[in-house]
Amino acid sequence: MSITKRLIPGFLRDRAVALIGEECYVSLVENLNIFDTKCLKYAISKGLGVGLVLGGLIMKLPQLIVILRARSARGVSLTAYGFETLSYGIITAYSARQAYPFSTYGENFFLGIQNVVITLLIVYFAPRSTPTQLAGAAVAIAVGAYLLLTIPMSYLAMLQGSTIPLTFLSKVPQIISNHRLQSTGTLSSFAVFAAVAGTFARLFTTATEVKDPLVFWSYVGAAVLNVIIGVQMAMYWRSDERPSIPKYREDQKYPVAHELPQTAPIGTPTSPGKIDPAGSHNGSGRRWTRKLD
């Protein structure tokens, strides 16, 4: 009898066997056969899968917290989150109805739920948002979830194939927004970099356990686009530290006095014998210039 067999409690053994199977458990744990490549890859895949599912429980929480604290979803693309949520829903429904192990897709289920909340927050905090718009978004999400659970499997397989362009549509608006603003706004760096690591790990687990090209290539597309957003996050890391445009109060037309940029005193010459040709403001607010003879 091996040492590991005597030392490992029965309840841990049962859970390990349930995860990687009796054959691989005996080979890797009891016989310590680390050269069993097949079982080693399978065990690594299972470990990554469980880690991804657990990570999926919290991956989007930082983004939720950022939006709630800022009471703004500036820089977070509604279009991107809408398509991403749909993609998560399709992958979850397709994998579940194909009876794939939950460890190979479970994070999509949890990420989809968190995305629904974030999507509704984006609508809620949008300028000129109305309760009707928020209710409409909630109804659309509920109807979409019902359809994914009830449509024939042949149609669902077609939708699974569509997750590749859906992934493109979900990421490109965010990439364009980041580039246009030269900032990632309220995007969570944790969520972005966790998504990069997660998609690469999921490529490994899908290739090892599922071997479904529809699922695999959807993760390939997601990995590439997540890397682009990760690069933008690194490029624009300090972009929000640049001087901001003066803020405006709702009840006034002009910038708040203490937020106006500091300028040189009136009449300060820019060069000997000359007054600033751009002019200065007198007490009445009119611009004036003075020439020296």
From TrEMBL:
Its main location: membrane. InterPro entries: MannP-dilichol_defect-1, PQ-loop_rpt. GO terms for cellular component: membrane. The keyword Membrane applies. Belongs to the MPDU1 (TC 2.A.43.3) family. The keyword Nucleotide-binding does not apply. The chain crosses the membrane at residues 48-70, 108-126, 138-159, 180-204, 216-237. This is Mannose-P-dolichol utilization defect 1 protein homolog. Pfam families: PQ-loop. Keywords: Membrane, Repeat, Transmembrane, Transmembrane helix, Transport. It is a multi-pass membrane protein. It is found in: Membrane. The lineage of its organism: Eukaryota, Fungi, Dikarya, Basidiomycota, Agaricomycotina. It comes from Dacryopinax primogenitus (strain DJM 731). Residues 258-293 are annotated as: Disordered.
